[in-house]
Write a structure and sequence with these properties.
Number of helices: 15
Number of strands: 20
Helix content: 25-40%
Strand content: 15-25%
Shape: globular
Oligomer: single chain
Structural class: alpha+beta
Strand order of the largest sheet: 9-6-8-7-10
Largest sheet: 5 strands, mixed
């Protein structure tokens, strides 16, 4: 893709696959950063073309991009404050911080998110150029020299035309006036050019004003993105029409929940060895060796049978939660075994150290969206000790769509700023300090600790806002004498008291 340091004028570029032509505006003025208020640097013959009108359009686009970014971080106080007195107040949530006034969030965005706003500015400039190009004459052959010398994408195989949004109002793509959506999906497939797919994904998400996280590897893609309903709908259509996913990815593979772009702090897209970090090379344990997938209805019937048989059924079958301990703490299936592990990469070691527990048993596995079960069940099967390995297709997310009052109780943990979503009113976890029923996570108040803590409103008012007494004491010391430049992430000391891989009793 062209970088923000390349400058070219609007032109009609032929698609690499020889299909139609698409209008692109690569008005990527040098370094679209908020801190750069000086004149544009000289750039050869293009300097004369960057006239007052172009500068005015750039300034307008940057101002609008800044406002849209701030708007996306706006929340009503009742989503982050349990006290009724602040329910009508407006605040802004970004980078795990809450800002109570516009000045604070403006300074934060200007200092920390100039690159994000620069990308948004570039998108707005492209949209402006598309509208202009509709009424302009075709580019003549004399303009060929102003086209970029390199292709927009590294691989023609991975190139896919971006959705046409020229007829859609920008506010409909980014507006928070109506509830947006968060998509969760994955697709295991052979990806010949992960870098090329990464380029397309980044362009697609920026084009649709989406935030979130997307992991790409040679074994497939795993993503969760948030934005307006219009934007997420266009994203699904683009994914389904991509040649790589046709016949493999279906509309039902996308799990949806209420949310939006504000549910993520930014957009992170990258290429990794695995699309879910289990820590095992995909060539050693492949998704192709996965267990038997059960639809939500089939899984529901299996769990019903398992629970109805009592001790007899549990002697033959294990209902296994392969998520992390802080996920299962606030929600899980009745009668399930939830390993006390902190990362999915600990799961293989947990299996290795508890093989006798699984020997000769039928295993019913589940996770959030199904992807961890794909690899986790494959690893279990590779050990050759289980009678059978089954897992919930689509994960808890899909199960709750069909059985909101089924055998899953409590909240469903999600990896974004919402922390959890709910399908029923059950609360099965408790406050860390007083034991009152409570299931709304927040980050430990002690920086730079990033552990999650369950602290009820009453305990928060008393100052108990850390993940453990050790961290609470440390937080008070840091508050009285904060060291300079404290911005790194570290594990809390209480992590050392937790067994990394617990051994289950048989």
């Amino acid at each position: 893709m062209p970088s923000c340091c390349d400058v070219a004028m609007t032109s009609s570029l032929s698609l690499p696959d020889g299909d139609n032509t698409a209008e692109f505006c690569i008005l990527t003025f040098a370094d679209l950063e908020l801190k750069d208020h000086g004149p544009f640097p000289p750039k050869g013959h293009l300097k004369a073309e960057l006239d007052a009108r172009a500068r005015k359009k750039y300034a307008s686009a940057k101002k609008k991009a800044f406002a849209l970014f701030v708007k996306a971080k706006e929340v009503v106080a009742d989503t982050c404050c349990p006290m009724s007195a602040c329910q009508r107040a407006i605040s802004w949530r970004c980078c795990q911080e809450t800002f109570k006034d516009l000045t604070g969030i403006h300074r934060h965005v200007a200092a920390q998110h100039s690159g994000d706003v620069g990308q948004q500015t570039s998108v707005i400039l492209k949209q402006m150029a598309r509208r202009v190009s509709v009424t302009s004459s075709p580019v003549s052959s004399a303009d060929e020299t102003s086209r970029p010398s390199r292709p927009l994408y590294r691989s023609q195989e991975m190139f896919q035309k971006l959705p046409d949004i020229s007829h859609i109002d920008i506010n409909e793509m980014t507006s928070d006036s109506e509830p947006g959506q968060v998509l969760l999906y994955y697709c295991y497939c052979e990806v010949a050019d992960p870098r090329g797919l990464c380029d397309w994904q980044r362009a697609l998400c920026q084009h649709l004003h989406l935030t979130g996280k997307v992991r790409i590897a040679s074994e497939g893609i795993n993503g969760t993105v948030g934005g307006s309903k219009m934007a997420t709908s266009l994203y699904v259509e683009a994914m389904l029409s991509h040649p790589l996913f046709k016949g493999i990815l279906t509309r039902e593979d996308f799990k949806t929940s209420a949310g939006g772009a504000h549910c993520f702090t930014d957009l992170r897209i990258g290429v990794f060895e695995e699309i879910v970090p289990m820590g095992i090379n995909p060539q050693k344990v492949s998704y192709k060796e996965t267990g038997i997938r059960l639809t939500p209805k089939e899984f529901h019937l299996e769990v019903e049978k398992y629970l109805s048989q009592g001790n007899e059924g549990q002697a033959d079958t294990i209902l296994l939660d392969c998520r992390n301990f802080y996920e299962s703490k606030i929600g899980h299936f009745r009668g399930s075994l939830a390993p006390d592990i902190r990362k999915f990469s600990y799961f293989p070691t947990y299996v290795d150290e508890n093989l006798d527990l699984f020997r000769g048993k039928r295993i019913l596995m589940y996770c959030t969206g199904g992807i961890r079960c794909e690899r986790g069940s494959a690893y279990l099967r590779s050990k050759g000790v289980c009678k059978g390995v089954y897992h919930l297709k689509g994960g808890i997310h899909k199960y709750l769509e069909e059985f909101p009052d089924g055998f899953y109780r409590g909240k469903l943990f999600v990896f974004d700023e919402r922390y959890s979503i709910s399908s029923n009113g059950d609360v099965i976890s408790a406050c860390r300090y007083c034991g009152m029923l409570w299931d709304q996570y927040r980050l430990c108040s002690t920086q730079p600790c990033r552990q999650l803590v369950l602290a009820c409103p009453q305990c928060q008012l008393k100052g108990f806002t850390a993940c453990c007494p050790l961290c609470q004491k440390k937080g008070l010391a840091l508050a009285s004498a904060p060291p300079p430049g404290l911005s790194f992430k570290e594990e809390c000391e209480c992590t050392g008291t937790r067994r990394q891989v617990p051994v289950e009793r048989i």
